[in-house]
Amino acid sequence: MTPSTMAFTFLTGLLLIVVVVWAAMHPLPKQGVLSQNTAVISTGLRVDLNADDVAMLTLLPGVGPSIAQNIIEAREGGAVFEGAADLEPVKFIGPSLIKRVGPWVVSEAGE
To answer: Are residues 78 and 39 in the same domain?
Structure first.
């Protein structure tokens, strides 16, 4: 192995180590986290549980299309939401999700 080949191999290995260490220290954000949390939190947007559509409901942290549809189905079934606590009977919504969305929801029924 010639000295130039050894130097190239050494530098390539060193570069690989630098890239791996950098990637470990700077992980990519989880898919969807920025779009959900940033839209609601940075703008101070409030979502109306009794009136908003699936697109608006999915802006709430932790609420995806399925849960948003469950909220709408509960509404269509006669549920009236005065606040986040009233989401408890909705399928796939538990105490931790209620706590996460609480600051971002409003309702004409509760105002």
So the answer is: yes
29-48 residue pLDDT tens: 555 444 445 555 556 778 99
CA distances from 40 to 3, 44, 69, 95, 104 (A): 58, 6, 19, 20, 7
- Find the farthest-apart pair of alpha carbons in the chain and give their distance in angstroms, rounded: 80
Number of domains in the chain: 2
Kindly state the tokens that stand for 107: 């309702």
Structure tokens at 40: 């609601």
Determine the length of the chain.
111
CA atoms within 13 A on the CB side of 43: 12
In a shared domain, residues 40 and 94:
yes
What pTM was estimated for this model as a whole?
A: 0.61
pLDDT tens, 61-72? 899 999 999 999
Domain extent, residue 102, equals 33-110
Residue 57 sits in the same domain as residue 83:
yes
